[in-house]
From TrEMBL:
Transmembrane domains' residue ranges: none
Keywords for this protein: Amino-acid transport, ATP-binding, Cell membrane, Membrane, Nucleotide-binding, Transport
InterPro entries (UniProt xref): AAA+_ATPase, ABC_transporter-like_ATP-bd, ABC_transporter-like_CS, BCAA_Transport_ATP-bd_LivF, P-loop_NTPase
Originating species: Noviherbaspirillum suwonense
Taxonomic classification: Bacteria, Pseudomonadati, Pseudomonadota, Betaproteobacteria, Burkholderiales
Residue ranges of domain ABC transporter in the record: 6-239
Entry protein name: Branched-chain amino acid transport system ATP-binding protein
Amino acid sequence: MNAPLLKLSAVETRIGAYHILHGVDFEVPRGQLTMLLGRNGAGKTTTLRTIMGLWKPSAGSVQFDGREIGGMATPEIARLGIAYVPESMGIFADLSVRDNMVLAARGARGADDIDAARLEWIFNLFPAMKTFWLHPAGKLSGGQKQMLAVSRAIVEPRKLILIDEPSKGLAPAMIANMIAAFRELKNTDTTILLVEQNFNFARQLGDTVAVMDDGRIVHRGAMAELADNQDLQTRLLGLSLAAHQ
């Protein structure tokens, strides 16, 4: 069996006086989409931010591709091939879609420096990015901004993408578009760790799942197993996936 691309072992994170993560343990298999689920306040966003180096672990190990990255600076972690799409999306509202993409492409001085074939692939995933290429990002709809945030993360090949609640606040049609795009992305060599509150979204996309509660991992396994077990859903998440289909 291949070694996992990402492995967290006994990770603890403290933010000021607050002890948020209490010994987090889980793995992200290569080439798969792993869902990180849990109730609000369980520690999911803190986990992503700790992996990305935005918050430093106070204990434990974060290994990426066999290398310890816990405590490394965020730019160093990004250079290893990890991209992060925060819940806030992290786009530059005053800049055009094009300029947002140029800034995300390391070393690019202009749009002509972005790999043309990859850009066309992104346009196929998210046609609105081509339509609004020269428009200010701040003028996009919520769903289009989310598409731009994901497009920025994949403008160059990445080994791992961390995504925080991509469907939050989106209309059903936009969610369906996002699901289709992630399915296409799964067909590449990209590994994804995705935090999500929309359980139907999780059920359709997840290969594996880790469930958090109170800063700890309380369940690990196949997403299909959790999707088929309503008692387990209720115990771990407080409600069943069936209610969100």
